[in-house]
Write a structure and sequence with these properties.
Helix content is 12%, strand content 47%. It is flat and about 65 Å long. With 333 residues, the protein is mainly beta. The longest helix has 15 residues.
């Protein structure tokens, strides 16, 4: 596939009312490592035409800022030859003052940042119940994890989410309108997409094949014990390698911590690829999906494997066309 043979179409809808089909560039960052997905849209210096509802909208001698304000909803769709896929939904966060005009947008986490501060003390609470308290308007999918006594003092829901990450390594992020809360080590891989060298992998990819010996890692697993200051720890790996700390579920036994840590080491220390796969608009990958990599140059298939996609950066511009940069992480199989 080569984007030169396809027409790239983009549609940006603001507040379910105003639509633009011309942009200078789009950049969307979708990752499991951050709280929010971020989109940046650069709009042309001169905008003459848009749509308002079902009617044409002329912007000649009118200010585009009359139609866009922080907090407005935004939807970005893109694709080839009119076949559009929703790449981002969220809210306008910032509107640049320079030309070209740049809109910085954030997913549903934007709304949690704007919620009022709360005070609440739980004698004992689970992660699921805490997140449901913080965001009752959303569907919640949370790890079944007791937190014990938990106190919120004059903090926004977003600040509590930051505290959960700092104290327990809990990650919270949105998939559409669903708020997901869990541990970085507890990923549940999603859809598998197939990538074949010479077919749908761009030459700009940073993939390289490295050995176990080049991936030296040393892991320390920690499981806090609720109601006490005690924590169960276990260390495993090569101390000369990169040191990583794993925040594990609460109240695990030593044998359970050992199992988690050694599995993490096995998944991350392997003979195989690291880096990023650069692809086109299709397949439509998302952070949390899997990349099945096939190299037909090796009939014995020793280089075929499936890896976790940690992040996807989508860019649309005149230089690179429509590109997805799929950053790879641990080995699935």
């Amino acid at each position: 596939m080569n984007y030169h043979y396809y027409n790239i179409d983009v549609k940006v809808t603001i507040n379910d009312l105003v639509q633009f089909t011309a942009v200078d560039s789009v950049r969307i960052e979708n990752t499991v490592e951050k709280f929010s997905d971020i989109a940046k849209i650069s709009l042309p210096r001169e905008f003459k035409n848009a749509r308002q509802g079902d009617q044409g909208l002329s912007l000649v001698q009118r200010n585009i800022l009359d139609f866009i304000s922080p907090g407005h909803t935004i939807k970005i769709e893109a694709g080839y030859n009119g076949n559009l896929t929703t790449e981002f939904e969220g809210y306008v966060d910032e509107i640049g003052a320079d030309i070209p005009l740049v809109l910085t947008c954030e997913d549903e986490m934007y709304k949690l940042k704007k919620k009022p501060k709360v005070n609440k003390t739980f004698a004992s609470v689970s992660l699921e119940d805490l997140v449901k308290f913080l965001a009752p308007e959303y569907e919640v999918e949370a790890l079944q994890m007791p937190l014990g006594k938990f106190m919120i003092e004059n903090a926004t829901p977003y600040k509590v989410i930051e505290e959960l990450k700092q104290q327990y390594g809990i990650r919270c992020y949105f998939k559409g309108k669903k708020l997901i809360a869990g541990l970085s080590i507890d990923f549940k891989p999603g859809t598998t997409h197939t990538f074949v060298f010479g077919r749908n992998i761009r030459k700009s990819s940073s993939l390289k094949y490295i050995t176990k010996e080049q991936r030296k890692r040393f892991y320390k697993g920690i499981s806090h014990q609720t109601g006490t200051s005690k924590k169960i720890t276990y260390e495993f790996g090569d101390e000369s390698g990169d040191h990583r700390t794993l925040h594990l579920p609460l109240n695990l036994s030593l044998s359970e911590v050992k199992e988690w840590v050694e599995k993490a080491h096995k998944d991350n220390v392997f003979n195989g690829y690291e880096g990023s796969i650069d692809s086109w608009a299709i397949p439509v990958t998302k952070a949390g999906d899997n990349a099945e990599i096939i190299d037909l140059n090796y009939p014995d298939k020793h280089r075929d494997m499936t890896l976790f996609i940690e992040s996807v950066i989508v860019t649309i511009n005149k230089t690179e066309g429509y590109k997805r940069e799929n950053k790879l992480s641990f080995k699935i199989k």
